[in-house]
Amino acid sequence: MPQDYLLKQAAWSRRKLLEYGLASLGVAGAAIAWQQLKRPTVKIPPVPPEATASGGINPMTLLRDFDYGRVTQEQGRTVREFHIQAGTSTIQLNRAVSFVSWNLNNRVPGPTLRAKSGDRVRVVFSNQGGHFHSLHFHGVHPPDADGVNPVRHGTTEVYEFDAEPYGAHLYHCHIAPVTRHIGKGMYGMFIVDPPEGRPPADEMVMVMAGYDVNDDNRNELYAFNGLPDYYMRYPIPIQKDQLIRLYVLNMIELDPAVSFHLHANFFDVYRTGMTLTPSEKTDVITMGTAERHILEFSYRYPGKYMFHPHQDAIAEQGCMGQFEVVAQA
Ligand SMILES: [Cu+2]
């Protein structure tokens, strides 16, 4: 499969060279042009200035914020070191409701960690949260890196493992009751890129959350990337005809499953992000808690388009947003 992928890319690039008349540039010139053509520019429209932080979180910033860690080489291997601190802070979910979050690096969701398949990952986890916490990563690793043992307030734990397999994964606190620790905000995405990478795209992370604001074991509010209804107030600008790659994760506890529906379009599904070719094309996909996928699409017509779970009661309690497709030069 990787060989096929590379051959397809090379054939595509050669075709483009001929199309643009670059075959006559000579070997060096063609090589430079080929590199440029191999990586077409990803167009990301400017973020509207009014889309600022609200209630302590800025979902517009979280959307495309990838943490690649501090990179070093150790014995010929790439090591990525990440620093994550557990803390407590109050976030304002809407005008009426404030919520005491337990969070990672002072944001909900926590940072989106990103590595390449085969890298060594070292996570330095410092607990300043006032309760026992831990970080449990999805992936393949030995038991001492599984993150189910409590880390006491004021202490630090180091989790170290290989980034495998490639896919759209997650991490979360695994201290009982896990429902409460996740419901309070202790989770994030862990993306492991395939060795050959993926085609250029405008990449975004969407984490769905539920908030039990009155401790009755039911969610009263829901959100994409931390804040209810944020992307309804501030639609996400995307470029017309641009490939969009969404890393979507359902972190809603207390509801068995939710779907993700995109208006006026269909998307390619890469289940758990673990394939390089899509497994299906649809406009609604259902995810249990901790399920996640890569979804790819592009929009043909400018304008605003909603996205939300098709459990409409959940959508109407905050898990709803919009893309604004713009046609720029
Ligand atoms: Cu915890």
- Beta-strand level of the residues, as a percent range? 35-45%
The CATH homologous superfamily of the largest domain is termed Cupredoxins -  blue copper proteins
| Number of discrete helical segments | 6
Bound molecules: copper (II) ion
Explain what this protein looks like in three dimensions:
- This protein is of the alpha+beta class.
- It has two domains: 2-38; 59-326, Cupredoxins -  blue copper proteins (Immunoglobulin-like, Sandwich), CATH 2.60.40.420.
- Helices cover 16% and strands 39% of the residues.
- Strand 16 (267-271) and strand 17 (280-282) form a beta hairpin.
- The chain is globular, with a radius of gyration of 21 Å.
- The model is unreliable at 1-36 (pLDDT under 50).
- The protein binds copper (II) ion.
- Residues 91-196, 205-326 form the Plastocyanin-like domain.
- Keywords: Copper, Metal-binding, Oxidoreductase.
- GO terms for molecular function: copper ion binding; oxidoreductase activity.
Question: In brief, what are we looking at here?
Answer:
The protein is α+β, with helices and mostly antiparallel strands.
